[in-house]
Design goal:
Distance between the termini: 34 Å
CATH topology of the largest domain: Nucleotidyltransferase, domain 5
Strand content: 25-35%
CATH architecture of the largest domain: 2-Layer Sandwich
Strand order of the largest sheet: 3-2-1-4-5
Helix content: 25-40%
Radius of gyration: 19 Å
Oligomer: single chain
Number of helices: 8
Number of strands: 12
CATH superfamily of the largest domain: ATPase, nucleotide binding domain
Mean pLDDT: 89
Shape: globular
Number of domains: 3
């Protein structure tokens, strides 16, 4: 069986093809370019090199969130379009599950952390014993609470993800358990892991149609949160003028226009 993996939940854009237990190709770029500019050209190049007809793909695995709202929508739209055009099923692979799968077989607790800003991370906890086990499923969590939870676990922890550069010093200072940080080849999202875990889900029958697929954002976009806050404060006019409404101060801030898409 052939599974195409698509990863676009963060800065990294990645596509891969896994055939049974062989990773045939992976194209990953971790650079500030819009995924709408990169994913399809990368896929075309992979298919060209492999001399692969996309009709030979049995399913399309897509990183289903959490992550960048824009990135997830681009990846979802790409997968849904291919699924509809090719008549192939989709496999929703939770982003953090696939990240943890980068470290297949590692001892201790695997803890991917994605920076969600304002001291929040998208995270989950995993362990490999005989099987790949989810200790705690995906969630948005304050980094201080995550460290408290890991201190209660009392096991060695391996961290990975774009939250590591942001919170590494805090982790090293406040985490009581032993910890380490994944090396470069395993510390970010990869299409190969999405495809490989997607292959596992495919054999288990965990597929969906292109029409059924929806990304899992875990929380609302900043624009939605600010709209709700502006309604609560009665400051829709300020928001409409392009100013951010701060919940902690209760005042409109003229520092910058409201960003439409933010993790």
């Amino acid at each position: 069986m052939n599974v195409l993996g698509i990863e676009s939940s963060s800065l990294a854009a990645s596509v891969a093809v896994v055939s049974d237990d062989v990773m045939r190709a992976e194209y990953t770029v971790n650079f500030k370019k819009t995924h709408s500019q990169t994913l399809l050209p990368m896929l075309d190049e992979v298919c060209r090199i492999l001399e692969l007809d996309l009709h030979e793909i049995d399913a399309i695995a897509v990183s289903g969130g959490p992550g960048s709202f824009t990135g997830l929508r681009i990846g979802s739209a790409t997968a849904k379009g291919l699924g509809l055009a090719l008549g192939k099923p989709l496999i929703h692979v939770p982003t953090l599950d696939a990240m943890a799968y980068n470290l297949f077989g590692a001892g201790g607790i695997i803890c991917p952390i994605m920076d969600a800003r304002r001291n929040q991370v998208y995270t989950a906890l995993y362990r490999f014993s005989e099987d790949f086990t989810v200790i705690k499923p995906q969630m948005a969590l304050d980094i201080h609470k995550l460290i408290e939870e890991l201190n209660l676990q009392g096991e060695r922890v391996i961290f990975l993800g774009d939250g590591v550069p942001v919170y590494r010093e805090m982790i090293e200072n406040k985490l009581k358990a032993d910890c380490s940080f994944a090396p470069p080849q395993a510390n970010r999202q990869r299409g190969a892991s999405v495809a490989a875990l997607g292959m596992v889900y495919l054999t288990e029958g965990r597929t969906e149609t292109a029409a059924e697929h929806r990304p899992d954002y875990l929380r609302k976009a900043q624009a939605e949160r600010e709209l709700e806050e502006a309604r609560r404060q009665g400051k829709l006019c300020e928001l409409a003028a392009g100013y951010s409404v701060e919940s902690r101060a209760g005042d409109a801030r003229a520092a910058a226009p409201v960003p439409g898409e933010r993790s």
